[in-house]
């Protein structure tokens, strides 16, 4: 559940960032020399790397929390 919530937020952010990057590239296209405004490797590779990092950032704490005894966690509060 925790990993799913984290990944939903990461996917929303990646999709929004991709849209803004595409719009920004079109606006700044006249300033680029020798580089295309749409590089598929960049526009799809970077979000995939960021989503993989987000997966690790959500999975590792969730795994550690799942190993805690629920009675101990409730006693601490």
Distance between the termini: 22 Å
Cα Rg: 19 Å
Name the helicity range: over 70%
Structural class: mainly alpha
Task: Spell out the key features of this protein.
77 residues; mainly alpha; 3 helices; 78% helix; 0% strand
Provide a quick synopsis of the model.
With 77 residues, this protein is mainly α. The chain is built from 3 helices and no strands.
Task: Outline the structure in words.
This protein is an all-alpha fold and 77 residues long. It has three helices and no strands. The chain has helices at 2-27, 40-66, 70-76. The longest helix is centred in the last third of the chain and has 27 residues, at 40-66. The radius of gyration is 19 Å and the shape is rod-shaped.
Q: Helices and strands in order, then pairings?
A:
Elements: H1 2-27, H2 40-66, H3 70-76
Helix pairs in contact: 1-2
């Amino acid at each position: 559940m925790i990993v799913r919530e984290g990944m939903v937020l990461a996917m929303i952010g990646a999709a929004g960032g991709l849209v803004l990057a595409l719009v920004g590239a079109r606006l700044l296209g006249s300033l680029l020399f020798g580089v295309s405004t749409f590089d598929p490797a960049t526009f799809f590779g970077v979000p995939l790397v960021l989503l993989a990092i987000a997966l690790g950032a959500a999975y590792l704490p969730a795994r550690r929390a799942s190993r805690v005894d629920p009675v101990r966690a409730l006693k601490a509060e």
